[in-house]
């Protein structure tokens, strides 16, 4: 790949608003492509311009409808490969199926690995993604994976609030590392809510490790869908004496149940990114921060064969350096 190779951005239909923001940040127009559905629900893709020898980045989150968006991405990769693209990078701001990353019970698939295999088989040469639910998914690929973090964007929102007596809380044991990172960034305390999962959509908070009385509490998680964990933890923390509760989530993939729970929850603000669209989040006090600058800068640096390491620096915040 040379610096004079044409940079081409393609976008599926999962999150066109984010794709347009990324294109503006990179300084190029989205390539002309037809991505539509036949009456029998099959996906049709046609790239309406020459991309032979181009460095192609295909922007597509595999958010709901997850199967349709994943298939759309695979077909777009195949179309670009057959159009003789020089390199194809699949840009997944949100990597669906990431929670199915291991066999935690008999006779179940490891679907996150299957998705990785499908992306490579379709013709992807590189993956660019953000805040994977499980870090080990990077190892499911035998091609390069650039794994970015939303923290540089999200933590600045609370930094600017300058809240005192701040405590960052992990809503479960698995999120301790992320909560610890935010606590260090914001100069706050750290606490953990231990939970018990009753079903796929119901969670019961059991114990609190740490002190939250009269504190501004920030619940930190990478992903929420039904909001069971967040709402259960927020209610538990308010009963434990927290002054107010904020939630920070990298990917708010909210369905009807999650939206209803959040409307009734004691959560002052849900701060998230635009990695997935939120058109239906009416009645939820949702603050959306854009990750387009970080993803756009990563695309530009990958295209120029430059380092993306400084994009992990929360103080740098995705600026050039």
Keywords:
321 residues; alpha/beta; Rossmann fold; 2 domains; seven-stranded mixed beta sheet; five-stranded parallel beta sheet; 14 strands; 29% helix; 26% strand; globular; disordered C terminus
Short recap of the structure:
The protein is α/β, with parallel strands linked by helices and 321 residues long. The protein has helices at residues 16-26, 66-82, 111-122, 151-161, 176-186, 228-239, 256-263, 292-303, and strands spanning 7-11, 33-37, 43-47, 55-59, 87-92, 126-130, 145-148, 166-170, 189-197, 203-209, 216-224, 244-252, 269-273, 286-289. Helices cover 29% and strands 26% of the residues.
Set down the secondary structure blueprint:
Layout lengths: L6 E5 L4 H11 L6 E5 L5 E5 L7 E5 L6 H17 L4 E6 L18 H12 L3 E5 L14 E4 L2 H11 L4 E5 L5 H11 L2 E9 L5 E7 L6 E9 L3 H12 L4 E9 L3 H8 L5 E5 L12 E4 L2 H12 L18
Helix pairs in contact: 1-8, 2-3
């Amino acid at each position: 790949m040379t610096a004079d190779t044409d940079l081409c951005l393609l976008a599926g239909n999962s999150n066109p608003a984010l794709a347009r923001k990324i294109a503006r940040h990179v300084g190029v127009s989205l390539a002309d492509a037809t991505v539509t559905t036949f009456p029998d629900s099959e996906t049709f893709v046609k790239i309406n311009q020459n991309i032979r020898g181009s460095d192609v980045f295909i922007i597509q989150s595999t958010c709901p409808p997850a199967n349709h968006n994943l298939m759309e991405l695979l077909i777009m990769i195949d179309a670009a490969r057959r159009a003789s693209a020089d390199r194809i990078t699949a840009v997944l701001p949100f990597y669906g199926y990431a929670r199915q990353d291991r066999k935690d019970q008999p006779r179940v698939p490891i679907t996150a690995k299957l998705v990785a295999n499908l992306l490579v088989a379709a013709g992807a040469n590189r993956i660019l993604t953000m805040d994977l639910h499980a870090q080990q998914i990077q190892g499911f690929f035998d091609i390069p994976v650039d794994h970015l973090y939303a923290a540089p964007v999200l933590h600045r929102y609370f930094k600017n609030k300058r809240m005192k007596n701040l405590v960052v809380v992990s809503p479960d044991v698995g999120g301790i590392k992320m909560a610890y990172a935010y606590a260090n960034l914001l100069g706050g305390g750290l606490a953990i809510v231990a939970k018990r999962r009753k079903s796929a959509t119901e969670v019961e908070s059991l114990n609190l490790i740490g002190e939250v009385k009269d504190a501004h509490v920030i619940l930190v998680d990478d992903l929420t869908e039904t909001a069971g964990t967040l709402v259960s933890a927020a209610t538990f923390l308010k009963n434990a004496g927290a002054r107010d509760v904020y939630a920070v989530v990298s990917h708010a993939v909210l369905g009807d149940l999650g939206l209803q729970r959040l409307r009734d929850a004691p959560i002052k603000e849900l701060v998230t990114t635009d990695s997935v669209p939120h058109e239906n989040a009416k009645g939820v006090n949702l603050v959306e921060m854009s990750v387009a600058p970080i993803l756009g800068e990563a695309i530009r640096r990958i295209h120029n064969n430059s380092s993306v390491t400084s994009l992990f620096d929360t103080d740098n915040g995705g600026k050039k350096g």
